Amino acid sequence: MEFNQWMIVITIAIVVVAAVLFITVSSFSSSKVLNPASGKNSTVTFSEAVSEFRNTTQSVLVHAIPEQNVLLYNGRDVNIVLLSASAQLSQNLTSRVPNATVDGTALITGGLIYPEIEVPPGANLNITYINLQTGDNCNLLISTVNPESFASSPVQPSQQLGAVFASPDLPPANDSRSAHKYSATIDSVNSDLWYSSDCVPSVYGHIAVSTS
Fold this sequence. Notes:
With 212 residues, this protein is of the alpha+beta class. The protein folds into 2 domains: 1-30; 33-209, Cupredoxins -  blue copper proteins (Immunoglobulin-like, Sandwich), CATH 2.60.40. It has helices spanning 3-29, 46-57, 87-94; strands at residues 40-45, 62-65, 70-73, 77-86, 105-109, 112-113, 116-119, 123-131, 141-143, 163-166, 178-189, 193-197, 200-209. The strands form 2 sheets. A 7-stranded mixed beta sheet has the order 2-3-7-13-12-9-10, with no helix packed on it. Strands 1-11-8-4-5-6 form a 6-stranded mixed beta sheet. β2 and β3 (70-73) form a beta hairpin. It is globular. It starts with a helix and ends with a strand. Residues 15-37 have low confidence and may be disordered.
């Protein structure tokens, strides 16, 4: 192959690679990022937090399958309350022993620990996150990107690519008397999401869009 032909081939290859990189970067850049300031911070008593947690569990719009650690939600508007809790509190609230925790912290919802959450296509997720830990600042990140891909990243959660919900760091609960709460809505969910907390960066849960 002559020199000019080689140059044409190399030029085409460079253009193709550049195009692929541009599409990849553009897809990440266009991922919806929810500014933590657009949510709502508040405080609740310990009993109010537990009541809110249990009320969503008892809703007719949610069906728990404990043996599979799965929550099935119905309806256009889905209310999910997630708690960061100690191993003992997690067991008290769910009657299940947390076996996937680090430093005694777990994320619990719907009476389960790190459950798979299934929601209808296009559902609006009304997320409430409450930190019931008494010793640590904790946050909640919900992302279109599997946490395994950024577990070692030094970037703060609110800056993570694909983030659709990123709470600020919530202070620890005050000796089980009051706790900090953050609420926001993720509109029209049509793809799978993953939820995690920096208190337990190596453990996460999955939010799946139901196909049935």
